């Protein structure tokens, strides 16, 4: 599970989200029968009673709960006529490369909000930004959605593990997991396209676009990014000399210093001084 979790963390760096609808509702308009939407639904239940049936499984969300109804699932919803749900609503899409974030999900994700006041505040901000717009509205809307998704999916114990397992299942994700794990384990060595391509049984000419499609960058760009992250970590939190840092990430000292300054604007030694 540790390898899958690490790979999933790497993949999340390429998560893209978009919001298509956001609103606060408190009436009887939540009666649907066997709908199969092409978008994900996120709700926060603030009050009321009702029922959700997703792919034939029945749930009764309670006030204070966040829930995600993945795209492509068969959904029936109902709410009490005497005590209808007061619900915060967001319709959204979420993709990691070519993969929908909830591509393999066939169940409802539901969690008691750890901080209801904060959840309402963030959801209210999402709704306000979605409707009123402005130069930074999209950025603020997406930021709010990401906070709410993390709040709903991030759990102690089996909850998070189950979601990661849902996402990582499938041949393509297993292939990519092997490549990312290999890169992490061999940052200090020469990493060749031919070797990475062998891991997924692809010709190098096909491997490069395959990797870019799923990760949003070429394999060598990804390797350079991971090496730079490791170098920053070593410079900030270890006593390794700059030369030792270069060696640990598989680069010659001159090449490392030149590349580091090109990307960050300062030398490795100056970076170390600024972070201590």
UniProtKB/TrEMBL annotation:
Keywords: DNA-binding, Transcription, Transcription regulation. Residues 177-274 form the HTH araC/xylS-type domain. Gene3D superfamilies: Homeodomain-like, Jelly Rolls. GO terms for molecular function: DNA-binding transcription factor activity; sequence-specific DNA binding. SMART domains: HTH_ARAC. Pfam families: HTH_18. This is AraC family transcriptional regulator. It comes from Paenibacillus mucilaginosus K02.
């Amino acid at each position: 599970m540790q390898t899958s979790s690490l790979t999933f963390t790497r993949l999340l760096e390429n998560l893209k989200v978009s919001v298509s609808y956001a609103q606060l509702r408190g009436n009887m308009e939540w009666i649907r029968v066997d709908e199969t939407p092409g978008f994900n639904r996120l709700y926060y239940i603030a009050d009321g009673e009702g029922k959700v049936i997703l792919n034939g499984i029945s749930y009764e969300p309670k006030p204070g709960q966040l829930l995600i109804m993945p795209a492509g699932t068969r959904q029936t919803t109902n709410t009490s006529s005497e005590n209808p749900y007061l619900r915060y609503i967001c319709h959204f899409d979420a993709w990691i490369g070519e993969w929908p974030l909830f591509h393999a999900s066939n169940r409802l994700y539901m969690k008691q909000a750890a901080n209801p006041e904060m959840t309402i505040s963030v959801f209210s901000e999402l709704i306000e930004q979605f409707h009123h717009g402005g130069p930074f509205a999209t950025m603020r809307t997406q930021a709010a959605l990401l906070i709410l998704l993390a709040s709903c999916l991030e759990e102690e114990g089996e909850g998070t593990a189950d979601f990661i397992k849902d996402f990582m299942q499938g041949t393509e994700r297993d292939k990519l997991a092997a490549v990312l794990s290999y890169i992490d384990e061999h940052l200090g060595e020469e990493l060749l396209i031919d070797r990475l391509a062998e891991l997924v049984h692809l010709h190098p000419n096909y491997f490069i676009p395959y990797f870019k499609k799923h990760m949003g960058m070429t394999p060598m760009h990804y390797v350079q990014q991971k090496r730079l992250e490791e170098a920053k970590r070593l410079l900030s939190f270890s006593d390794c000399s700059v030369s030792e840092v270069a060696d640990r990430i598989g680069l010659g000292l001159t090449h490392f210093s030149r590349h580091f300054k090109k990307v960050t604007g300062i030398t490795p030694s100056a970076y170390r001084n600024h972070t201590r």
